[in-house]
């Protein structure tokens, strides 16, 4: 049976409110929670970008049951992979083993801030491959020295190591993504309900001798509101960046860039791609393509930081009932 999660979207909500919402989402019955890791929001109207790892630590301490994911962290530029390993190990201890480290090759929006430029996609993926290997080495708790193509690690050791190291999920797309990361990932993270991608990744896992089947994690933006027109307006104001697709979004450097790139996206365009309004059946129908493609974990993004409390109080429980009933 598919599991359904809640997104702690740091781009639209401040840190204290994120922890409050995380507690509420657990109480409402969500199975897991994913936390985005951004230095900037996509659009200025979203208005936030607290540090994801401070939020994850607080949420790990404040919750008891839900699994937690970073969704996703780039361990190559803004963070050195040794620092990501330390952060992930600490959150895993605080969460009593409920944490999964979600990794990706990054976005210019967040990574350019450290002044190292923005590499080509091929280079970014090669950097991520090397970073994953370093992180796994450090999870072993032994002294690590590393001289690679992109990173150096000198006499590093994690002194607080969880009993069970965090699983590693990797965001990938298409045959090239599976070729590069399929044998490195415990879990698959994907942005589209692509059954061929899921099948190819599972084949790669089996050929690498990984135990079990691994989880396949996706994310679905929704904009629930009793007033559909209000929901469409909010989704257009804060989430029209989504229309560009990840091949474009990964390269834009600033919220102003996203605003310019999406200036001709209409509210109707957003409403066609994102379920908006009070209709829970529309959300269920949008989620259906994910579990039919083999996704095990589907995280909902409720658009609009100011709408979280009402969504969690009024819509979350009946929505979860409807999703679980439909998914069987």
TrEMBL record:
<protein>
    <submittedName>
        <fullName>LLM class F420-dependent oxidoreductase</fullName>
    </submittedName>
</protein>
<keyword id="KW-0560">Oxidoreductase</keyword>
<dbReference type="Pfam" id="PF00296">
    <property type="entry name" value="Bac_luciferase"/>
</dbReference>
<dbReference type="InterPro" id="IPR036661">
    <property type="entry name" value="Luciferase-like_sf"/>
</dbReference>
<dbReference type="InterPro" id="IPR019945">
    <property type="entry name" value="F420_G6P_DH-rel"/>
</dbReference>
<feature type="domain" description="Luciferase-like">
    <location>
        <begin position="6"/>
        <end position="296"/>
    </location>
</feature>
<dbReference type="InterPro" id="IPR011251">
    <property type="entry name" value="Luciferase-like_dom"/>
</dbReference>
<dbReference type="InterPro" id="IPR050564">
    <property type="entry name" value="F420-G6PD/mer"/>
</dbReference>
<dbReference type="GO" id="GO:0016705">
    <property type="term" value="F:oxidoreductase activity, acting on paired donors, with incorporation or reduction of molecular oxygen"/>
</dbReference>
